[in-house]
Amino acid sequence: MAATPADASSSSSEAVVGGEKSNKMITLISSDGESFEATEEAAKMSVTIKHMIEDGCADDGIPLPNVPAKILSMVIEYCNKHAADADDTNKHVADPADADEDDDNNNNNASAGEKEDLKSFDASLVAVDQATLFDIILAANFLSIKGLLDLACQKVADDIKDKSVEEVREIFKIENDFTKEEEEAVRKENAWAFNE
Amino acid sequence: MGLSIPASEPKHRRHRQEGCEADDDGAESPAIAALYLYGDVLESVVERVPAPDLAAAAGVSREWLRAVRSALRRRPRRLPWLVVHLHGRRRRTAAYDPHSGAWLTVQAPRHATPSHVRLVRGARGDRVCALSCSGLDVAGDPLGTSACVAMKAPGVWRVDPVLAAVGDRVVALGGACQLALAEGEDAAAVEVHEGGNWTACDPMPPALRESAAATWLSVAATDHRVYLADRTSGCASWFDPSMRRWGPTRRLKPDAGVSTWGVAPGRAGAEQLVLFGAKREGEGAKNKVVIQAWEVDGDTLDLSPGAAHHAMPSEMSARLFPHDEDEEDDGETFPSIGVCGNATGGYVYNSAEPANGAVLYELQQEGTAGGAVERWEWVPCAPSVRAEPLGRVILACSPVGLNELELSRGLPPLGPQRACTDVQ
Predict the structure, then answer these.
(1) Distance between CA B424 and CA B419 in Å, rounded?
(2) Global pTM value
(3) Residue B225: is its pLDDT beyond 70?
(4) Could you give the CA distance from residue B240 to residue B202 in angstroms, rounded to a whole number?
(5) Which of A90, A166, B313, B381 has the fewest CB atoms within 10 Å around its CB?
(6) CB-CB under 8 Å, A160 with B61
């Protein structure tokens, strides 16, 4: 009896059984004027948007002048996926009475499968070119979506793994603005890092 | 500089005009990373860069250096690493970075080194060493990859000594080969290596003579002293190699049920020790291993008054000492722990089964009352150790600097080598 996102959204994630969740849709407007719809629950994964909704500024749609349409659609996709996942976890936790041996196993298998799905979704979301990745980071930073920011920053950090200084500069096209003396000093100072 | 540049131009274009780096003209991508990766965002990225790559990250540009420094200042990586030296079919070394929670496999050193099967404990970090009749060779870095510091062998032939580095001195305690003792020589003999030579000092105190070897003793080295504790009885004492004298001998036994004791340096500031004790509690199938920590004053070896002792969370001690399903009555077996650490924190492990994993402990720092340990964290077993269950494992603990990580990757060292102890 696998729990699908559709089922999850219709059951309560509140501690009180029987509470209704708002199915209200929020309109988000990208920097190039395109409108996107998202459930309130998904939109609230952004702390920035959450505050705007709570302050009552969201009724006519929320303009996001820093986020282009291409990125906004990816962000919304992320929020939809992860909001549903958070809900599933709550659902399992909230119904301990329902869990008999078989049910529990089925639920566990389902959530293990869903976790795998989520991981591969996350991986494919950030498997993009550098420019898009940086746009995602900026958007996640601006919208305060911690999970997405962590994910994207981790991807950039992974790209740095096992690279030399020159290689890192090459990948990110960073100009070396050290003077020769400064560069030598940094190389000599590396022992400081953990002993500060 | 002679060039007038409009203030609004990004810095990288200025460089291009000065003829520093050639780059594709008019290409969009050169600008992107430099424009986006700075400030908080760059710090978030750098935060996630594992230790071996931080040296590269710090050298990229001024902004990257600033970001690395800021990220390290915000979340300092002060805890020592757990270094596992494995002597199986091949020698292998793995190191655990407590900040990123990841194991790093160290490349085998290029030069042939003798088999390092002993440890020299030190406040600046443990080092592996090889002891033979002809000499004592101590590894130059915590990962055992750089050249050894060679010293003369101690005067007394020792097969299982306690070795400790205190400041610039090396101390060898006990472990003398009983069969080879000459007239008047003492199995519990102590020697200090200073200025290229070993000097005999007062032997170990009487309470510790019965257990005067590394197998029976737990060792903690601070900047001034070597502390020894008998792992079974809890008798402890300390030795100061610069004054060449022994401190008081005390029986540390705050809990009679404890079957093994271990000591590690206490927090920085005062001379302090942390005492760990493991015992089995409970009846029959419900018995479990409980590991606790006490604070001990370094000078008097008194247990700190009123210091609430901390117990390791039971799910962690259960993973260190899992129930053996086949064992009829494992309530009979005594849990035996090993401890290694420094003034910021360290590791506790099951000394009979080091492959079960370890528990990281972080010490409370100054000004906080209420016990020695601030937090405990589970450390999974190193993959290379799990792959070779019959190998002999030596666990050591040491801070690891970026220089040493560069060395371990087989790259040439970046700066002046750290000063060595006396080379003979």
Answers:
(1) 14
(2) 0.70
(3) yes
(4) 11
(5) A166
(6) no
